[in-house]
Specification:
Elements: H1 8-21, H2 28-31, H3 37-51, E1 59-63, E2 66-71, E3 81-87, H4 97-108, E4 113-117, E5 121-126, E6 132-138, H5 146-153
Parallel strand pairs: 3-4
Antiparallel strand pairs: 1-2, 2-3, 4-5, 5-6
Helix pairs in contact: 1-3
């Protein structure tokens, strides 16, 4: 995918992912331990949603124990929750993240879509399709299919 296909903010985030997530963070000798889950949220997840047009007041961090909750409208309430994002630390794998996120959605009492991520890879699960995976992007190895994820996550 060419950088022209992405907004400036998204291009900047992809460049940061390449610099940090694909190189420095993996070099334990140069960097030390892999970044924690909260760093992944701060460095990659929040900038992604901002780049996709979501204003900060609609992006909640650690709301009701959810790593990131994106609201379609204010006030922040279960009824307005559009996405539940479950983040994992880099390299830890996200295989169990869906079940954990489903638990958070169940506690809200209303369906919403789920995103699981390690900061580099993002997978979207659709609540209307029994949480079937519907879009994927690896910010470190962008493919044209990533545009589908960005379109689904973008603020309407």
């Amino acid at each position: 995918m060419s950088p022209e296909a992405l907004s400036d903010r998204l291009s900047d985030l992809v460049a940061l992912v390449h610099d940090l997530g694909c190189q420095l963070y993996w070099d334990c000798q140069a960097f030390g331990e892999h970044p924690a889950e909260d760093e992944i949220v701060g460095h990659f997840v929040l900038p992604l949603f901002v780049a996709l047009g979501w204003p900060p007041e609609k992006i909640a961090v650690k709301w009701r124990y959810i790593d990131v909750a994106v609201s379609a409208a204010l006030p922040r309430s279960p009824e307005n929750c559009r996405f539940v994002v479950e983040a994992k630390s880099l390299g830890s794998g996200v295989e169990g993240a869906l079940e954990q996120a489903k638990g958070y959605v169940a506690s809200l009492g209303v369906p919403c879509d789920i995103v699981v991520t390690d900061g580099l890879r993002y997978r979207l699960y659709d609540c209307r399709r029994d949480y079937a995976p519907v879009a994927y992007a690896n910010l470190g190895r962008l493919k044209r299919s990533a545009l589908d994820l960005f379109a689904k996550l973008a603020r309407p």
